[in-house]
Specification:
By secondary structure, the chain is an alpha+beta fold. It is built from 24 helices and 23 strands.
Length: 766
């Protein structure tokens, strides 16, 4: 082994690569080891750049606009010499925003400028309206001696006191770690895939397929590699809010994260109780290390695309036992219109993450329901694949879990004779049990809220309650085949693959390989049905009238969500066609045509998408308040699906229509993640107080007297004993049954890890 490594390191190309990696790592270490660059400016040091506004000092000595006026840049600091990196800018200010004609609060901000283009990222950090001091994060891409901090008054009163600009060295050290990880992965890939490497994979065909798969993965991630690319879709604000909320909750010591205390302008919001967020802990940790929330999101998206490529190739290779067939399937899957649509047009994080794991399910079914009954080892492999895939769906996208479970149940019931044999039934029972136990920490709170009622906004409330409401959101049949600008279609390529399979089935007849015929037939029938269910011709109105089942089926919100299943199934059909054609001379031209058309479709999408990518990106901050100019308050944004009943949301908070408070309130303070109420009950009877916290199970009194309850306004209320005067502290604490579920999941995970370690040791000892 050592001799092989020494021989490899003597090669000129390897030496050049290692030298380059060493220089990059040493550069990162040098930047991280230097003292943090710090600048401090007082109000009188700011330079006036306002053209129309009058710049004065306020009563507290701050400098800026002291009367309501229109917006413009008003102040800038002297030039600073800043190296590349992240900078925390701490501001002392007074801010009273004006309003637009649409009655939306204006947003004043600070940002870096420089004489050299591209030195700074160009993001703007909006200051917190509700605070008089704030810390925001700004970035420098390339070192410059001409960088200035500019204060922009969007409209209103905006005066600034002292400001400190300090380099974030935690992020610098995180960059060192990041480079180590990246280079380790690159070197490992090269050792395994470069011909002539002593550890290269022996299968040259497999190496070539993996190189091409890597290239397609990079192609899929092209917009993510651009500044601001990939963070512009319909739901990107929601998902960046989730990442920021998880990071903030972890910073506060909450694990697992249940309630994001900063969300909804400090009212607290709990998407984690309704929506699996385990995979988002990865970008949240990157955020804690100092990476911008946009950078953390893009890193996550790139990692998911690499995971999608790896899992799909593994799954198709297991099913068809052919490297090139697996490569064709993986490329078609990666470049499928609905997959690209979810990544860039919708930014549907949960759905495109779920797509990464879906191929494992047909791979497991191909082992369990093959012509030859599975042996013990095969059954264990299939069980592991089912646990990973269904467990990941629980933690990424409940709707995808529902769709996949229904289609898998149809398949298993059709093959009930095989399903109810001892070995296969054991696999299903074991897999289902492990999925439940491993995810019990999420399922118990989720089912508590779903079955207990009180959160009827789920899935859009009444707007999606009827089948016709779902049906009208379906696509026209003609839209299934079109290369739409947004790519929300099944696309011509996969339909062509379906046609190719039908042609093989008709011309080859019984001579068609049994595996391709069976997999292809099932995938063709279910895939065609899934496509039909995406359209407005499917009778969703009739299904919606069915008791229980109708409500379950209508939970998808939009019928085109069935494209996730249709995409996987029609990719399987296409691979079956290519595999069957290998018996003749048509496999290669058909595969080339399908892949070329897929590349053309992605090129058409990028042609319309990339010009919309902004060359700058919006600022992130410790509290992540504002992200979209005059449109969205990031801490506010999220959505309204998981609000408690009775909560009436407005642009600037919540309207409490029902009077609840009967005590005299002296003050309400936030101390970390605890809300402290100072009040007095003067009527000599049981009193009530309503707090500005959205109600979720788990809020409890940690200090003081009384009990927590849900108010008619969907807020946290506390009872105040008669004659009480003092403080009552309320904080979120997990109920005991939730803690028990956490423990069960942890013990199950440790048990599986222990079982895996023992199995590996046994194999080595044999």
């Amino acid at each position: 082994m050592r001799q092989s490594i020494r021989s490899l390191c003597r090669r000129p190309a390897v030496l050049v690569l290692l030298l380059f990696e060493l220089l990059v790592v040493l550069g990162a270490l040098w930047a991280a080891a230097k003292p943090a660059v710090t600048y401090t400016f007082t109000p009188d040091q700011w330079e006036v750049i306002a053209q129309a506004s009058s710049i004065e000092y306020d009563a507290d000595g701050r400098r800026g606009v002291t009367e309501m006026t229109d917006g413009e840049p008003i102040l800038q600091t002297p030039a600073m010499s800043l190296p590349a990196g992240h900078y925390r800018v701490t501001l002392d200010y007074r801010y009273e925003p004006g309003r637009t004609e649409e009655e939306i609060e204006r947003r004043s901000s600070v940002y870096f400028t420089a004489e050299e283009e591209m030195s700074v990222s160009g993001e703007r950090a909006w200051v917190n309206v509700q605070a008089q001091q704030d810390t925001v994060v700004l970035n420098v891409d390339y070192a410059s001696d001409t960088i200035r901090l500019v204060a922009d008054n969007d409209g209103g009163i905006f005066t600034i006191g002292n400001v400190e600009i300090r380099q974030d060295m935690a992020y610098a050290w995180a960059c060192v770690l990041g480079w180590f990880v990246v280079f380790a992965l690159v070197d490992l890939a090269l050792v395994l895939l470069v011909p002539g490497s002593p550890k290269a994979l022996r299968d040259a065909d497999l190496r070539g397929c993996l190189w091409l798969l890597g290239a397609v993965t990079v192609l899929t991630c092209v917009p993510l590699l651009m500044n601001s690319g990939g963070a512009q879709g319909a739901d990107w604000r929601f998902h960046l809010s989730r990442i920021e909320g998880i990071a903030q909750a972890l910073r506060e010591g909450q694990f697992p994260v249940r309630v994001c205390s900063q969300a909804k302008d400090g009212y607290g919001y709990a998407p984690s109780l309704f929506y699996g967020e385990l995979f988002l802990y990865f970008p949240a940790v990157l955020r804690l290390l100092g990476m911008s929330v946009q950078g953390a999101y893009r890193t996550y998206a790139i990692a998911v695309q690499a995971l999608t490529a790896g899992i799909s190739f593994f799954s198709f290779r297991q099913m068809f036992r052919h490297n090139k067939n697996a490569l064709v399937g993986s490329i078609l899957y990666m470049l499928a219109p609905y997959h690209i649509y979810n990544i860039y047009w919708r930014t549907a994080v949960g759905e495109y993450t779920a797509l990464a794991f879906l191929p494992l399910i047909p791979a497991a079914l191909s082992l369990l329901y093959a012509q030859q009954k599975p042996d013990r080892h095969t059954a264990r492999v299939a069980c592991a694949e089912l646990v990973v895939s269904f467990g990941a769906l629980v933690q990424t996208h409940i709707i995808s879990l529902e769709l996949t479970t229904l289609s898998t149940a149809v398949f298993c019931l059709y093959h009930f004779r095989r399903t109810f044999t001892k070995r296969i039934l054991e696999v299903w029972v074991t897999a289902a049990g492990l999925v439940v136990l491993l995810n019990l920490w999420f399922l118990v709170p989720f089912l508590t809220l779903m079955l207990g009622g009180g959160y009827n906004n789920m899935y859009g409330g009444e707007s999606f309650a009827g089948g016709l409401s779902v049906q009208k959101n379906g696509l026209w049949l003609s839209e299934l085949l079109s290369w739409r600008a947004d790519h929300n279609s099944i696309g011509v390529v996969l339909v062509a693959g379906l046609v190719a399979f039908v042609w093989c089935w008709l011309t080859q007849g019984p001579a068609m390989p049994q595996r391709e015929r069976k997999i292809g037939a099932w995938a063709a029938v279910l895939g065609t049905l899934a496509c039909w269910m995406c359209t407005n011709t499917f009778p969703w109105g009739i299904l919606g009238s069915l008791p229980v089942v109708g409500r379950l089926l209508l939970a998808i919100q939009f019928p085109w969500r069935y494209f996730s299943l249709a995409t996987l199934l029609l990719v399987l059909v296409s691979v079956c066609a290519v595999s069957a054609l290998r018996r003749g001379r048509y496999a290669q031209p058909v595969a080339v045509l399908l892949l070329s058309a897929s590349l053309l479709g992605v090129a058409i999408f990028y042609h319309s998408y990339l010009p919309t990518v902004d060359t700058s990106y919006l600022g992130d901050r410790a509290q992540m308040i504002y992200t979209d100019y005059k449109i969205s308050n990031m801490a506010w944004y999220y959505d309204s699906l998981y609000l408690p009943d009775g909560a009436v949301e407005t642009r600037d908070g919540f309207t409490c229509e029902t009077a609840v408070t009967t005590v005299e309130i002296a003050s309400v303070e936030r101390r970390g993640n605890t809300t402290v109420l100072s009040c007095s009950e003067v009527n000599g009877e049981l009193g009530y107080a309503e707090l500005s916290l959205l109600y979720y199970p788990g809020y409890t009194i940690v200090d003081g007297e009384g009990e927590v309850f849900r108010t008619a306004n969907g807020m946290v209320g506390v009872t105040v004993p008669a004659g009480f005067s003092g403080e009552i502290s309320v904080a979120f604490r997990e109920p005991k049954r939730w803690l028990a579920a956490d423990l069960v999941s942890l013990v199950t995970l440790l048990g599986l890890l222990g079982y895996g370690v023992r199995s590996i040791r046994r194999k080595k000892s044999v």
